[in-house]
């Protein structure tokens, strides 16, 4: 299919999403859908946002392609990258049509997800235990503080030597970052729970186990989910570094490899894809969080309406 | 601790003695000691997967050797310099940007979409672009470190400005302050805690990025040193590198914390 | 066991004594002392604090900030232990130096800032006690909870979260949550402190109606002298740190109380007495720079 058609389809999809969001806003402000759309499109805010974005693309294009400024002369131009991305027969072998593109995405996503899920499961348990049991905290906190300052990427060489293979090593390093972030945030969450909730539950007759599930876990949830979002971002950060240093396949590897092979448009494609995938994973975590913490949403809504 | 002791009217020596005999301290020391003990035993061959790892004693020996090499200290200097360049540049550019975005709605509309679009891209993904763009290797690595801390500080400052209580600005207006005065006298000082938080988080990210950038594309520095030890299969050297990096990161965090506390004498950072 | 109150119109000067008394919830607090951190900072919160509370009595404690009122409540509730003295509940030891008290559904607390679980709906909050103690099945508990909520005028809020309710409603839900466990004593730690006067007035009315209906022993801590006089049968004045009971005032107002009593001569006289007693202590505490003990 012609890349221009794909482009127009994508553009149409974007417009549809925008239009649907206007519908919700129209209901809120009690005006018709068409009027709301017109209102948004002509608002200063919207125009400025579009202007900013357009400026950037123009600036990029002008510096690289039109003026060919000295520092910019090795960078690919925006149109070149876009065309390459949508090209059915790409010059450098990577576009939305090629299998390799999706293989790389899959590898990266698989590694990130595995590491994230492991880190979240272990991190939340660890953090809960640290917040719950003074004994456990006393034993584990110094160890955690001993190992935490070492940047996760410094573990890469050691991990490669000790663990059987590159894949586990990369996943391990990614896991490590996410684990520390999740643990610390969970701990903070448990510590942030007001003592009154514990006391109320105890005088109502709750046993220790019931305290854990009825007070500690829900009470720490907001912090846990903030931690999960941060750890998702941190996981991608480490993953890309790990892939660049040592892996085969994956978006980080793709970016580095295309640099070595002088396939510069692919660098940009890789970066944009990374941004999209990273954003999507954070958004998923965020929406799961919102579902689980419906009570917070409603509370915040009440505040917003009143305030 | 001396300050805390004075607060509670208990003598310093009593406080120290109580710390050392407190349950927490004893348990913590026990845990750390057991960790090193297990490491030592494991590396001597008792645990299967640890045969490649040197014992703590070997590591200490190698560490001692390294401390005498000028190259070691040069690596420290190089890495620190890179961290400093990137971090400081990120603060100089990021803080005004964050303040501007929080203060002026139009400016935010212009810049925020782009900012949000570029933010999810991990800093290291910028390495090739950076190398292609900047003339020297040093500047390209500095750019990567800059990116890491930049997004963090802008986000924190933006959050800080938006969370200034309305009453503060209203009070200033009712006293007849001009927008410029409000900005310099109210908004800026009220944002300092968020700047401090952004700096604390940013310095951690910066270190991570520097190490990785050095491993991928650098020729000097602690990261590079660790990578070279890896290439030479000198495992003890790797561990020494890791420890050095950890210490360096810790030192920088303490420095940033000290700066933050100097900026905010009324608030003690946890 | 509680029976429905049968009042008889009594003369205004004598204290109204209900015909049927509750038989549970008699507290005997004998020379209770509490010292925090004995080898270190040595803060003496309570010293030889004594009082006798009969079953079904509404008792109010007033005193300056930081004098130890909350400490006493915490010991009674079971969150803290005493270092001296003993407390007996219905002639059974509740807290002695060797036997620390444990929290339980016979002495439920209503907290200052409110401790409704924000992540549970109103209904889930109210049924929490019975369900967690495995006293009732969930459906039974829900039925009972709905009855109680209806009586209190909160029907319709069962599926809301506490964050969506006003503070007055939240307090009522919290009291309902406490009462569904049929406690011997209801412990209230300055529950209306953060409220505006109008909501406070309505909350007082609600509490009084509740008291008239259930005749539970109520232990009420407050700063507000008028509130104490209006609600309670007995008002104890606690000294500043270390706290003990300096003065006990029997409130001779008839039940059911109404707002016109607030301006009666009797009320004013009692208030004058209280003000003088409390003011001395407050001045002492102020000069000593006491900070609020959490």
Could you characterize the architecture of this molecule?
- The complex is a heterotrimer of chains A (307), B (270) and C (294).
- Chain A has 307 residues and is mainly α.
- Chain A has helices at 3-29, 33-42, 44-66, 78-85, 99-132, 134-147, 156-162, 166-192, 195-203, 208-246, 251-260, 264-292, 294-306.
- Chain A is flat and about 70 Å long.
- The model of chain A is unreliable at 303-307 (pLDDT under 50).
- Chain B is mostly helical and 270 residues long.
- Chain B has helices spanning 2-8, 12-21, 23-46, 56-67, 70-103, 105-118, 127-133, 137-162, 166-174, 179-217, 222-231, 235-263.
- In chain B, helix 5 (70-103) packs across helix 6, helix 10 runs parallel beside helix 11 and helix 10 (179-217) runs antiparallel to helix 12.
- Chain B starts with a helix and ends in a 7-residue tail after the last helix.
- Chain C is of the alpha/beta class and 294 residues long.
- Helices cover 33% and strands 21% of the residues of chain C.
- Chain C starts with 26 loop residues before the first strand and ends in a 6-residue tail after the last helix.
- Mean pLDDT of chain C is 83; it is low at 1-20.
- At the A-B interface, helix 3, helix 6, helix 7, helix 10 and helix 11 of A face helix 3, helix 6, helix 7, helix 10 and helix 11 of B.
What's the topology here?
The complex is a heterotrimer of chains A (307), B (270) and C (294).
Chain A: H1 3-29, H2 33-42, H3 44-66, H4 78-85, H5 99-132, H6 134-147, H7 156-162, H8 166-192, H9 195-203, H10 208-246, H11 251-260, H12 264-292, H13 294-306
Chain B: H1 2-8, H2 12-21, H3 23-46, H4 56-67, H5 70-103, H6 105-118, H7 127-133, H8 137-162, H9 166-174, H10 179-217, H11 222-231, H12 235-263
Helix pairs in contact in B: 4-12, 5-6, 5-8, 5-10, 5-11, 7-8, 8-10, 9-10, 10-11, 10-12, 11-12
Chain C: E1 27-36, E2 43-53, E3 58-62, H1 69-77, E4 84-89, E5 92-95, E6 107-110, H2 122-126, H3 128-132, H4 138-152, H5 167-179, E7 185-189, H6 197-214, E8 217-221, H7 225-231, E9 234-238, E10 245-250, H8 265-288
Parallel strand pairs in C: 3-8, 3-9, 6-7, 7-8
Antiparallel strand pairs in C: 1-2, 1-4, 4-5, 9-10
């Amino acid at each position: 299919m012609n890349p221009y058609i794909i482009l127009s389809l994508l553009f149409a999809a974007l417009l549809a999403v925008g239009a649907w969001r206007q519908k919700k806003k129209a209901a809120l402000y009690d005006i018709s859908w068409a009027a709301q759309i017109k209102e948004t499109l002509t608002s200063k805010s919207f125009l400025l946002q579009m202007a900013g974005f357009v400026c950037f693309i123009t600036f990029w294009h002008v510096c690289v392609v039109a003026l060919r400024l000295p520092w910019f002369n090795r960078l690919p131009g925006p149109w070149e990258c876009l065309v390459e991305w949508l090209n059915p027969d790409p010059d450098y072998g990577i576009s939305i049509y090629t299998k390799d593109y999706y293989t790389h995405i899959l590898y990266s996503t698989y590694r990130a997800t595995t590491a994230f899920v492991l880190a979240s499961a272990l991190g939340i348990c660890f953090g809960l235990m640290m917040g719950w049991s003074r004994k456990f905290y006393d034993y584990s906190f110094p160890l955690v503080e001993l190992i935490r300052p070492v940047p996760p990427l410094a573990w890469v060489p050691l991990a490669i030597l000790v663990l059987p293979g590159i894949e586990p090593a990369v996943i391990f390093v990614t896991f490590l970052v996410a684990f520390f972030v999740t643990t610390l945030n969970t701990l903070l969450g448990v510590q942030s729970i007001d003592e009154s909730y514990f006391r109320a539950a105890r005088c109502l007759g709750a046993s220790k186990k019931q305290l854990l599930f009825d007070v500690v876990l829900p009470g720490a949830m907001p912090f846990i989910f903030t931690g999960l979002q941060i750890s998702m971002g941190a996981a991608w950060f480490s993953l890309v570094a790990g892939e660049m240093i040592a892996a085969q396949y994956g978006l980080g590897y793709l970016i580095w490899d295309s640099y070595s092979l002088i396939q510069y448009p692919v660098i940009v494609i890789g970066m944009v894809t990374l941004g999209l995938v990273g954003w999507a994973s954070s958004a998923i975590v965020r929406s799961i969080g919102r579902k689980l913490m419906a009570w917070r949403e409603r509370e915040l809504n009440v505040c917003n309406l009143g305030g | 601790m001396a300050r805390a002791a004075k607060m509670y009217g208990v003598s310093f020596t009593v406080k120290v003695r109580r710390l050392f005999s407190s349950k927490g301290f004893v348990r913590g020391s026990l845990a750390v000691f057991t960790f090193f003990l297990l490491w030592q035993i494991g590396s001597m061959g008792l645990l299967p997967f640890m045969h490649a790892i040197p014992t703590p004693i070997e590591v200490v020996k190698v560490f001692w050797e390294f401390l005498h090499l000028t190259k070691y200290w040069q690596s420290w200097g190089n890495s620190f310099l890179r961290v400093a360049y990137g971090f400081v540049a990120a603060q100089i550019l990021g803080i005004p940007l964050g303040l501007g975005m929080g203060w002026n709605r139009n400016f935010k509309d212009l810049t925020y979409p782009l900012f949000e679009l570029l933010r999810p891209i991990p800093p290291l993904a910028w390495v090739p672009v950076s190398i292609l763009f900047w003339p020297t290797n040093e500047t390209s690595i500095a750019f990567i470190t800059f990116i890491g801390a930049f997004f963090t500080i802008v986000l924190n400052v933006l959050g800080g400005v938006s969370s200034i209580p309305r009453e503060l600005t209203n009070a200033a207006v009712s006293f007849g302050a001009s927008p410029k005065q409000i900005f310099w006298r109210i908004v800026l000082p009220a944002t300092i805690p968020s700047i401090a938080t952004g700096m604390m988080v940013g310095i951690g990210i910066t270190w991570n990025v520097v190490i990785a950038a050095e491993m991928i594309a650098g020729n000097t520095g602690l990261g590079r040193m660790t990578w070279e030890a890896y290439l030479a299969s000198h495992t003890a050297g790797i561990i020494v590198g890791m420890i050095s990096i950890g210490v360096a990161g810790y030192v920088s965090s303490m420095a940033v914390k000290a700066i933050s506390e100097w900026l905010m004498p009324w608030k003690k950072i946890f | 066991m509680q029976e429905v109150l049968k009042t008889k119109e009594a003369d205004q000067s004598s204290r109204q004594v209900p015909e049927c008394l509750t038989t549970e919830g008699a507290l005997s607090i004998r020379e209770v002392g509490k010292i925090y951190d004995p080898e270190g900072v040595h803060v003496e919160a309570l010293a030889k604090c004594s009082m006798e509370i009969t079953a079904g009595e509404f008792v109010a404690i007033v005193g300056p900030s930081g004098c130890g009122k909350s400490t006493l409540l915490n010991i009674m509730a079971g969150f803290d232990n005493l270092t001296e003295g003993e407390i007996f509940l219905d002639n059974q030891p509740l807290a002695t130096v060797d036997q620390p008290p444990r929290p339980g559904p016979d002495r439920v607390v209503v907290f200052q800032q409110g401790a409704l679980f924000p992540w549970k709906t109103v209904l889930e909050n109210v049924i929490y006690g019975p369900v967690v103690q495995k006293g009732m099945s969930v459906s039974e508990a829900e039925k009972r909870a709905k009855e109680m909520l209806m009586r209190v005028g909160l029907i319709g809020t069962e599926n809301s979260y506490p964050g969506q309710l006003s503070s007055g409603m939240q307090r009522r839900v919290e009291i309902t949550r406490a009462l569904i466990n049929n406690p011997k004593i209801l412990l209230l730690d300055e529950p209306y402190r953060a409220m505006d006067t109008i909501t406070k007035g309505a909350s007082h009315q609600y509490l009084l109606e509740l008291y008239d209906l259930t005749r539970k022993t109520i232990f009420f801590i407050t700063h507000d002298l008028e509130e104490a006089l209006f609600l309670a049968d007995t008002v104890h004045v606690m000294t500043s740190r270390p706290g003990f009971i300096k003065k006990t005032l029997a409130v001779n107002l008839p039940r059911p109380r109404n707002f016109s009593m607030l301006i009666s001569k009797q009320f004013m006289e009692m208030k004058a007495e209280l003000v003088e007693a409390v003011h001395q202590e407050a001045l002492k505490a102020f000069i000593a720079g006491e900070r609020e003990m959490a």
